[in-house]
Amino acid sequence: MDIRKVAGALGAEIAGIDLSRGVTREQASVLRAALNEHLVIFLRDQNLAPRQFLDFAEAMGEPIEYPFVKSLEGFPTIIEVKKLETERVNFGGIWHSDTTYLDVPPMGSMLLSREIPPYGGDTLFANQQLAYDALSDTMKRLLEGLKGISSSAKADVSRTREDRIRTDGAGKKPDDFVAKHPVVRTHPETGRKGLYVNIAHTVGIDGMTTDESAPLLDFLFRHQVKPEFTCRFVWSNNAIAFWDNRAAQHNPVNDYHGFRRVMQRITLKGDVPR
Predict the structure, then answer these.
(1) What whole-number distance in Å separates Cα of residue 147 and Cα of residue 267?
(2) Which residues are marked as active site?
(3) Inter-CA distances, 237 with 116, 145, 241, 245, Å
(4) What mean pLDDT is predicted for residues 104-129?
(5) Are 84 and 167 a contacting pair, CB within 8 Å?
């Protein structure tokens, strides 16, 4: 396999592997090491049937069901992430880590492009370990031990998410989940520390009033997505993005009104943040 960095902060494209043939244990080890190093990996020209996509996911972790959106027929752990020609707001169109309002948030997520617009629809990613490293020692000491409060109710900042729940919903209300996690998370595989709050889901800091926590969170929300911490992926047909939800945020760019964009997503089981 050929592994090529796409930016200084994070991200790598991997060539020389055909996932339709399955993934060997050795290949899975190389891919996992690349994910730990680069936090998001991209694999192009992977024309996979749902079963093949799921096989890849199972080689990298344990696929789990997404709590809100109905799955593909026969594949309970694969959902569609889509924006239709008539819609103006995209699904999840804000910086976030996936479902941090769960007690056990996912390790990672995979997107496979099925239909892409003729232009636009890129996805941005941000390295939360670099963002933490760039903080002052005083700020690091301040954040140590704090816990952020995440709520799925705040996820309605992306209105199309509500549209998807209404049309493709799995029967759960969007305000079902609240969880508390460390503001600074230690990666369970590499030991690196990174910020673990996000503007889409984090509503406060445990033990602080809203007035006390808001200025601190506002600073962190701005800081953690500075350009120097990010990369940008330009989608092509049959491309996969696989990111580490424990250490990276993402944001799909909403700049393709009037066109359809359809992805398939698999979420991988994680661990309790510490």
Answers:
(1) 24
(2) 96, 98, 250, 265
(3) 7, 43, 12, 23
(4) 98
(5) no
How far CA 179 is from CA of 123, 197, 244, in Å, comes to 26, 12, 19
Q: What is the structure's pLDDT at 53?
A: 98
- All structural domains of the chain with their residue ranges: 2-268
Residue 8's nearest CA partner among 189, 192, 232 is: 232
Domain 2-268 fold? Double-stranded beta-helix (3.60.130)
pTM strictly above 0.85: yes
**Residue 164 Cα distances to 57, 77, 124, 151, 260, angstroms:** 24, 16, 22, 18, 14
Interval 45-85: pLDDT, tens? 999 999 999 999 999 999 999 867 788 999 999 999 999 99
31 vs 103: CA distance, rounded Å: 27
Find all residues with CB under 8 Å of 56, minimum gap 6, and list them: 19, 23, 48, 110, 240
What pLDDT was estimated at residue 168?
A: 53
